[in-house]
Design the sequence.
């Protein structure tokens, strides 16, 4: 969906972020109403707070708390690439996990974000992570394992079962979180590949290193090797690998992810298994036939 976010100052001198949705987009009003309905009643330190909205005239405006450092993708593979320390990366992973866990398990009903990616993870002046953009979010009815819906989200961060069959569950967010973890560790976009194929898609590269017990080689080369230990990288990569399992039931709940992240040293994880029926190069291919391109973003 086309949108523009600008910085503004209220009369009381509070700085806010104002997101204007493009009325020309067919989903603008529906996404606007969905975001207000969901996020206005959801409060957590790792979720961006909605302060107000405006529906007068042709403008659809959402007013949010201002996040000084903008979005995570800027620090992973844009103008500030490589500037995050290892500790900051770990804290961002932890904070994002807590935000997702609240949506899935601590609210009175399960909320599926549907578009977990670095562009939707904002950072305040202390680099605290907060999840934003709930225009695509859906509620999972009680006693339902999944709902069937038209695909919406960003390709490259979604799951095979959702892209292919439209089966939406909280495991879609967990898969996206696993991809984001790998991007934070590696410092590059999951779908990037050089024209001369000198390196693979990130997920394929991660699997190769994981299966050969070379997890530590996935750490961003921009990091100082004195900032982290090989076992720290290994643990995070193992957790990410569990999150991107091809079978939804094999992916951990986000509360389990937090428990594993908080553990000291090795947590005795069951080894993740790469299922051969899916190609992990793009995350939405099957039997080596391209179903969807990972270079674009799709929405309802």
Sequence:
């Amino acid at each position: 969906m086309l949108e523009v976010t600008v910085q503004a100052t209220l009369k009381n001198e509070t700085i806010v972020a104002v997101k204007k949705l493009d009325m020309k987009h067919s989903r603008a009003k529906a996404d606007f109403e969905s975001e207000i309905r969901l996020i206005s009643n959801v409060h957590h330190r790792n979720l961006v707070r909605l302060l107000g909205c405006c529906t007068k005239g042709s403008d659809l405006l959402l007013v949010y708390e201002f996040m000084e450092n903008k979005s995570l993708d800027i620090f992973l593979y844009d103008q500030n690439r490589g500037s995050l320390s290892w500790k900051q990366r770990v804290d961002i992973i932890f904070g994002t996990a807590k935000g997702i866990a609240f949506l899935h398990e601590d609210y009175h009903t399960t909320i599926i974000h549907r578009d977990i990616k670095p562009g939707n993870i904002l950072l305040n002046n202390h680099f605290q992570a907060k999840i934003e953009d709930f225009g695509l979010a859906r509620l999972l009815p009680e006693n339902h394992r999944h709902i069937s819906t038209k695909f919406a989200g960003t390709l490259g961060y979604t799951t095979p079962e959702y892209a292919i069959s439209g089966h939406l569950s909280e495991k879609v967010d967990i898969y996206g979180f696993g991809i984001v973890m790998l991007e934070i560790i590696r410092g590059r976009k999951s779908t990037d590949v050089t024209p001369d194929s000198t390196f693979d898609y990130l997920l394929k590269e991660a699997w190769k290193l994981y299966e050969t017990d070379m997890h530590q080689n996935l750490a961003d080369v921009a990091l100082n090797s004195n900032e982290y230990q090989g076992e720290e990288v290994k643990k995070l990569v193992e957790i990410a690998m569990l999150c991107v399992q091809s079978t939804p039931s094999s992916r951990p709940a986000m509360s389990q992810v937090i428990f594993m992240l908080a553990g000291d040293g090795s947590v005795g994880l069951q080894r993740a298994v790469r299922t051969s029926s899916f190609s992990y190069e793009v995350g939405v291919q099957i039997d080596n036939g391209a179903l969807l391109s990972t270079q674009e973003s799709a929405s309802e």
User: Anything to note?
Assistant: The chain has a mean pLDDT of 81.
